[in-house]
Amino acid sequence: MWVITLTIVEVQQDNTNGVDGLGGAKSLTVSPDGKFLYAAGYDDSAVAVLLTPR
Known about the structure:
The protein is mainly beta and 54 residues long. The chain is 0% helix and 33% strand.
């Protein structure tokens, strides 16, 4: 079993400050190099790409 501790660095909200595609986010994944977070937005039928704070 894997245990991962996450720390909230920043909050992004759908339809705020140019953010789109997060409506009904169902799945998250991080790119292999750790630079990007991908969020699948079910309600928006979209994928949001966020730059990670590395």
